[in-house]
Amino acid sequence: MKKTAFILLIVVFLVLMVTFYLGGTPLVAEGLTRAGETAMRASLLIVTAFIVIGQLQVLISSEMIKKWLNKYSGNKSLVFSSLAGGLFPGGPYIFYPFLAGFKGKGIPFYIIFSFVIGKQNYDFTRLPLEISLTTPGLAVLRNIITLPFPFIMGLIVRRFFPKGIGGKFMEQGEQ
Amino acid sequence: MAMPTMVFLILAVILFLINLRSGRHWEGLRNAVKQFIAVLPVILLAMLLARLLEILIPEEFIKRWLSQEAGFTGIILGTFGGMLMAFGPYASYPIIATIYHAGAGLGTTIALLAGWTYLGLSRIPFESSFLGLRFTFLRMTLGLIFTILAGVIAHLIELLF
Description:
- The complex is a heterodimer of chains A (175) and B (161).
- Chain A has a domain at 60-160.
- In chain A, 77% of the residues lie in helices and 0% in strands.
- Chain A is built from 8 helices and no strands.
- Chain A has helices spanning 2-59, 62-71, 74-87, 92-100, 109-122, 127-133, 136-146, 149-160.
- In chain A, helix 2 (62-71) runs antiparallel to helix 3, helix 3 packs parallel to helix 5 and helix 6 (127-133) packs across helix 7 (136-146).
- Residues 171-175 of chain A have low confidence and may be disordered.
- With 161 residues, chain B is mainly alpha-helical.
- Chain B contains 8 helices and no strands.
- Chain B is globular.
- The chains are: A mainly alpha (175), B mainly alpha (161).
- The interface between A and B is large, with 78 and 78 residues.
């Protein structure tokens, strides 16, 4: 996060320079005022969104997700693995090592694939942020449109790559 | 109080009460505070960046390349824009919202959001090192197709309604 903040700080600094060059102090002040207004308006929403995220992270464990992944097979498993991906707590530092833990466990490739897409598409910790930092309308529309995508992508992978794609550890075939 | 804030507030109370039963409610709150403090500078910087971009991006550019009238061009630009936006959600979402409010079409905006979701380049090093480059290539290929599809669907919705 510190790295992101640092990169962002440099970008903001450069954009501030351009703003100052184009419109001087009044334009910079306008940008700062608008940013302050947005921060004030969104503050309560953002704080409550973080409380929701924190509580959900405690409620849903990776053990629970592991059970789900092992429980189902076939098309039903695509739905459950996508949802399980969305409910998986933690960022990439936890998510990818967790998946690597399934190496050689016989879980079909399409389940792993839809799990990854499900994480990207439905990530429950991101949804409150998407609603609070974009607009509720945009977030809802994006989620409705892309709702079936992880399932459809999983179906495509199941149909065209039933034996996986080779590579690092994805050599597991259809069960 | 705005409706989304109210919904989150109610949800937060419900989840707090559920976790209260297992005695892990404070752990949830601690998680929330820790994460909030960690990302607060990013959120504030992103908001500032978003508002500065709002001032700087010429209206003509939005109209020509990103608005509803830009059609498929806007969707393609949105797709690759989302892919290149290598920031986390705290920074990317306010920027996308600003582009939308500046007059970008719904197709472009949804393609930006979907492109960021499915194609984000910042994810590649992690994914490819754990799951392999072939996996990443397959995911990116399908992600590209479905991002464009999402943009087209949103564009059609905007045209119809």
